[in-house]
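Wed. Picked up where I left off yesterday with Putative proline/betaine transporter. The coffee machine is broken again, so keeping this brief.
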Amino acid sequence: MSDTPTPANPRSRVLVASLVGTTIEFYDFYVYATAAVLVFPALFFPAGDPTTALLASFAVFGAAMVARPIGAIFFGHLGDRLGRKTTLVISLLTMGIATFLIGTLPTYETVGWVATALLVLMRLAQGFALGGEWSGAALVATENAPEGKRAIYGTFPQLGAPLGFILANGLFLAIAALLSAEGADPTRPSDAFLEWGWRVPFLFSAVMVVVGLWVRLRLVESDVFTKSQDAGLVRKIPLASVVRNQGKQLVLGTFFMLATYVLFYLMTAFSLSFGTAAEDLAVPGLGYGYTTFVLMLIFGVVFFGIFTMVSGPLAEKFGRRRLLIAVTLGIIVFGLSWVPLVNAGTVGVVLWLVLGFSLMGLTFGPMGALLPELFPTSVRYTGSGISYNVASILGAAVAPFIAVALWKQADGSPVLVGVYLSVMAVITLISLLIGKETRDIALEETPEKATA
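Structure written out below (tokens, as returned):
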């Protein structure tokens, strides 16, 4: 008799419910990141030094990273005590309201610093909600997966990253193109875009949130969670339990994700800065136009999506650990190959993007199953959420700053940035060698296992 319970929800409902939230998560990230460069310095910060305004805009963007671990603890507590469905509905609703409200905010010119404070508040609310979104979506996918398909189902919440990127950047490009005047400077947003066009992508998020809520409200709790409840295994304080009993898994899970996060933010945030920086600047880049390079990025992100889906069957066949060890070795080599690739002209730059995003799909895809499999049912929401979001601080929050510093140190060459990626991948490789395979672990928790 199989240890894997029969899924309580139809396959289509599970996959859509797990996909929609993470799609909104990454859509939100890229919408804000793009606005933080194009319009927020002018709209939400006082006139003066443009560089200072840009840094202030990015600082507000980074506020969400601070709130994410707090959200992971809060929503993890709810998810492990009340259930995955209720918690996912609350987190999605919180995130959706905050994102929508950003699109309605008054600007600095209208209400002064009140506008800036409201923007910070909305970003904190987004980060707080996102702290509980990923782990809940991953649990919906894996706890409802048929036997032998947890990694395949676990790739669907991961698909939110490439889909969110394409939706956000595609929408921004389309709106900017529609609102640009004939003969206008293509590197500067039009007056109409500054006045109201930038709000459309934020307001559009409401459509996805409504769809997500409709799907999630139709979910029922997985058999894995309900059996844990019936057996009396729900912990009063999941955080205390997971720190006390699964401390090693928390640390390993965090470092499993380290290379993934560093690679992701270098291939997106850093590559956009490096690719569009003019060649005649003090710290030169590749000098592509914004629209041109974003289209190149979108092309690369297509491979991100393809290889995210490919990673599921591979992780089932070879195991999560073996696959990730091989991919992490590939990331190490890739980091040391940056200069020859980007110096080979447009073909080399496109190859650099395609290789980077393909590796991203192969390393990100299995995490949807691997991190939940590290923890028992009673603390799975909390444990996977903390590992995922602490890794976002270590790998994502600091990566853009370190990358820019190394880029400047090397006088515009990305060589040290690639070395930085390789070093982070070595840390992930060591953690994978220490860790154990989780493919054959039964998710269902029993009283005997809980007291072991």
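Quick read: The first helix runs from residue 11 to 38.
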